[in-house]
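Per reviewer request, we include the raw input and output of the structure prediction for the construct analysed in the revised manuscript.
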Amino acid sequence: MNDVIVRREGGVATISIDNAGRLNCLGRSQIVAFIDAVTALADDPDLRVLIVTGEGNRAFMGGANLLELGELNPARARDFLILIHRMCKVLRDLPVPVIARVNGFCLGAGLEVMAACDMHIASDNAVFGMPEVKIGLPSVVEAALLPQLIGWGRTKLLVYTGDNIDARTALEWGLVEKVVPAAELDSALGRWVESIVESGPKAIRLQKELIRDWEAMPVSDAIEAGIRTIAKAYQSDEPVRMVGAAIQRLKDRKRG
């Protein structure tokens, strides 16, 4: 069995956990294969967007492999959690937008991977949760991203109770940006991808870099970083060329 599947269509790549029989749960082999695959994609200058999902219709990622969790000791637990962190970090560090395509259960480490993505779309049968406390563990590593997505109160509800929420609640909370019927998931996702691919490839990469900077900056510094980024954008011909094309389209409409 492959641990992950990478599909490519032009500048759009999809990486999928291939463990559907176990709800795409994450063991060491799946995590390492995922890290290696995303790391390889990061070096591709033609990459425009990455979609992250799980094989089958039942799960995005169902969390960490319980059999492997049951065999950990303090040192091995640290190593395993560092791997999960690296799995999330390669997505945050990827120079192009990453979209989570959530198609069922999204639990524990799987929800942390989803949170590490830039955009999140879910089918209406998706289920979200951080159930670690129910098996004697705290929620850690990229669970730290949750407060900036959903606030401290809702984060505490997830990690203290370990209870699941449905897709509509996830949308209301801001955990995902869009929920659609399962049959419409790929078409709705495709509209997001199309919009990204239509945009300037250098501008998109600069935008992701800037957003990562914004996360760690006070507002005044973030504004200054934005000004510097605009200057970097004009180091290529992309803005002048694309602005010129937009002006020409306006002229053509007026003539029409």
